[in-house]
Amino acid sequence: MSRLNRCTKESRQALAIARAEAWRLGHKAVGTEHILLGILKLNDPLIEGLFASLHVSTLRVTQVLEYVVGRGSKALVGEPSLSAMARTALIVAEQEAMAAQAELISVEHLLLGLFSERDGVTVGVLESFGVYLSPARQQFTTLLSKGRENAIFSSHYQARYDATPTLNQVSRDLTAAAIAGMLDPMIGREAELERTMQILSRRSKNNPVLIGHAGVGKTAIAEGLALRIIQGQVPENLLDCRVVALDVGLLTVGTKFRGDFEDRLKCIMQEIINARGIIIVIDELHTLVGTGVAEGSVDAASLFKPMLTRGEFQCIGATTMDNYRKTIESDPALERRFQPVQVPETTLEETLEILRGLRSLYADFHQVNITDEALLAAVQMSSRYIQGRYQPDKAIDLI
What we know:
The protein contains 21 helices and eight strands. Helix content is about 55%, strand content about 10%.
C-alpha cells in the first residue's frame, strides 16, 4: 500500500485491521468490505457518530459484514493483496484529503472513499440498513466542513435530536441552533449565567427561574448556556446536555378532545426521560399554570411537578416578577421546585457594551456602518424617551 506514508496513524491501523480480517477470513484480496470492517473496529467517535446520525449501529453493520463476506474455502499462502475496488477507494480517499487541504489521509477520508462505490458487498450491506451512499456521503461531507471536533459533536447530537420527535414539534433546540451558528453571542450577564449553571449543577432544587422585566435578556441567558455547552465551557455535568426551548402555545394545538393534551404531554415527558440530559427552557413560565385545562383534566404545571420532584429532567423558567408572585409564588408546590435568579435591567454602560458586541451583526445585515456615536445615542435616547420598556431591548430596537 504505497499510500501508507500519507495516512494518519488511525488510517494505517484501519488498513492493518482490514488486511488482518481478510487473512482471518481466508480471502485472497483485501476488499472494500474489509476496509469498512477495519474502520468500524477502530471505534472512532466521528465514524460512530455518523452512523448514529443515520440511525445505524456500527456493531450490527460489523456483524452483518462478517456474516455476508463469510470465510474463504482454502488456506492462504502469503498476504492478501488489494482488490481493484479497494485501490479505487484509496485513490478517492487521497483525493478527498487533498480537496480538504489535509496533509494526511484520515479515517474519514477512507470512509468517503468507500462511499464512492456504486456496487459490491459494502454497498449491499449498507443499503440493507437503509444507508444509501450518495446522500450519506453528502451528509458526511457537510459534517466534516465544520472541522473534526464539531463534526463529532454534531453527528452524535443529530442522533439525540432524532430520538425526541414529539418534543421537536413543540420546541426549538437552542443547542442545535448554536451548532448551526444561528444564535447571537451573549454579551454581559456573566453573573446570571454562572448562577444559573450553579443551580443546574445542584443535586436537588436544581431548576433556575429567571425573573426580570420583558426585554432585559432572560432568553439571552438560556441561549448563552447553549453556546457555552458547544464550546465546552460549562461544568462537566452539563457538557452533554441539550437546551430545548418549549413553546407552551404549541402544546395545545390540535388537542380537540378530552385527554389529547395529557397524552401529548405524557409522550413528550417520556421522550425527555428516555433521552436524558435535556434542559427544558420555558419562557413565560407562568403560562404553564392553566395550559391544557378542560373539564375533568389537569394543567401542564401539575403534570410537570412530579417529574421535577423526581429529578427526571431539569427546567429553566423565565417570567416577570409580577407573574412570578401571582402564579408561581402562590403555588407552594410549584415554587419549591425552582430557585429564583434575578435578572435586573442593564445599566447604560452595560447596554453600550452589549451594543458594541452586536454592532457587526447589525451592520452586516443592514449593509451600513454603525459608529460609536450612534451606539451611544441609541442608549441615551432610548433611556430618556422610551418608557415602559427596558434595556438592552429598547436600545437594540433603536439600532
